[in-house]
């Protein structure tokens, strides 16, 4: 059998195809430190993967995010957006039980100090890594200082946190300007996996309107060991609430969860309201919370929200899951008054306080801390609100401001582990209740309906 030697023409064709293939490989997969347009990526070179252009979830739920490509940021001075660059998680202040280390002000918004001086209100919130994609919409509606406490379970989640926070600071101006981040890590942080199986680079097809999809891609970096640790250990909600709240530098703090979205223009409205408020320091100002169907558009006004409720596209928060969670707010009374849509007033006073009441409220930062023995889910917010009630706080419902949670909730959709954690915390409540009765020399249980 004889070998066939290719002629010169064939060799030339092969060489040309080889050169063309190398050219396109370099264009599509640029070397580390260079984007596909030849611009230097510098410190943001290892942030995010390319994503396909699809309809983002936030568009489906009535929220329009910027359509800017991340590519446009790679030619700016990236030194201004470095994320947690000099943070050493091997040390930090301990919580009271030495279970978690806390890094206060791990990353501070460029205008956070100035905006805190000029504002009476600050939004404090908390999140796990998985739910941080809600922050862009919260920050888009809340144009003022925001203090975010984040739980990072190990090195892998911390790396994801760096990637995603850098991405948010590049894509969303209010996060870069006014949002401050605090980090809480577990005591055995150093024992958790340190090696990531993949690394990501900025690609030109990445768009800023995909925060949820971006985070889901990044979450795939976590190893099985990290995920198993997360399943075995409860999420420290109350620790994070205390950290986020103390990160606010304003007179009034609005303490929420990361998936609670404030109404549009609420910062201006609340600042105008609190300029004229006179209270002895034991007042809590409740902002009503509603669930919105994902097919709806976020309501810009109270009137628009009322229309959604009439259409069955919105309802009071937890109304079907656990009605007592928000029942004392008296939504019927709040909805019966469609007043001036721009000026905040007190709609009414909460007179039918329920034991399991969990409103989202603003107050001077002298309210009792969230008790950190309640870990995971159940009795985390309502125990703190109950202590406020025992301590003599009065609750006033504000209008026309409101907050929303996307999705009409169903009880059967909740995982079994949430009920298990709820039962564990229920057993701790009797001791907690006896302590606060003794602390305030007040046992108001006969007053509760």
From TrEMBL:
Keywords: Glycoprotein, Glycosyltransferase, Golgi apparatus, Manganese, Membrane, Metal-binding, Signal-anchor, Transferase, Transmembrane, Transmembrane helix. GO terms for biological process: protein O-linked glycosylation via mannose. InterPro entries: B4GAT1. Pathway: Protein modification; protein glycosylation. One of its GO terms (cellular component) is Golgi membrane. The chain crosses the membrane at residues 12-30. It is a single-pass type II membrane protein. PANTHER family: BETA-1,4-GLUCURONYLTRANSFERASE 1. This is Beta-1,4-glucuronyltransferase 1. It comes from Drosophila busckii.
